[in-house]
Write a structure and sequence with these properties.
- The chain is α+β, with helices and mostly antiparallel strands and 203 residues long.
- It has two domains: 2-80 and 189-195, Glutaredoxin; 87-186, Up-down Bundle (Glutathione S-transferase Yfyf (Class Pi), Chain A, domain 2).
- 47% of the residues lie in helices and 9% in strands.
- The protein has seven helices and five strands.
- The protein has a five-stranded mixed sheet with strand order 3-2-1-4-5, covered by helices on one side.
- α1 (12-20) packs antiparallel against α5 (151-161), α3 runs parallel beside α5 and α4 (117-137) packs across α6 (174-184).
- The radius of gyration is 17 Å and the shape is globular.
- The two termini are 31 Å apart.
Length: 203
């Protein structure tokens, strides 16, 4: 499998999941401004929509959309518990949808140069309300659904990290801040972030 990614983008989520699931995935870096891969290839030929993450399966099929990709990767190694069975699976799906609709989308508009400044302030205020809600939901828990790390936690970690670009200090929410620190400390998360150049390897 090949995972097309851009450092620190939402593609970091499936990158983390692939490592947590111990799956052999080839990483292909994409310049999202020029829509080319590191070898100069036209990324639009891989994904006509031109965005990451994109997963090229061994059979030639293409998967797009982060929440779908992380579920597929987790299901390749069910023993990883990244995508639980039974009712808990629906809780994970619930969180994936929340993160996509209520956090990721708002951040996308904040990053866009086309978004008016006054609307960006509305988006920031909305995100602050959502982060406050998340802080309450994380009270007494290590991760979103309890004590087990799932694909939803990887996604939340990646998207919440973008807050630093928009003057939103996560330290004001102790449960959320503890969650972020906890996820960042995971060995596989460290591996993924080092591989993308987001943190420097230890000397």
């Amino acid at each position: 499998m090949r995972l097309y990614f851009s450092p620190g983008a939402c593609s970091l989520s499936p990158h983390i999941v692939a490592r947590e699931a111990d799956l052999p995935v080839e990483l292909i870096r994409v310049d999202t401004k020029t829509h080319t891969t590191t070898d100069g290839g036209d990324f639009y030929k891989i994904n006509p929509m031109g965005y990451v993450p994109t997963l090229l399966l061994d059979n030639g099929e293409i998967l797009t959309e982060g929440p779908a990709i992380v579920q597929y990767l987790a299901d390749q190694n069910p023993t990883s518990s990244l995508m639980p069975k039974g009712y808990d699976r629906y809780r994970v799906l619930e969180w994936l949808n929340f993160i996509t609709a209520e956090l990721h989308k708002q951040f996308s508009h904040l990053f866009s140069a086309k978004t008016p400044a006054e609307y960006k302030e509305i988006l920031r205020e909305d995100l602050i309300r959502k982060f406050a809600l998340l802080d309450k939901k994380l009270a007494g828990k290590s991760y979103l659904t309890g004590e087990n790390f799932t694909v939803a936690d990887a996604y939340l970690f990646v998207v919440s990290n973008w807050s630093r670009f928009h003057k939103i200090d996560l330290a004001q929410w102790p449960n959320l801040k503890a969650f972020m620190d906890r996820v960042k400390a995971r060995p596989k998360v460290q591996e993924a972030m080092k591989a993308e150049g987001l943190i420097k390897p230890a000397a």
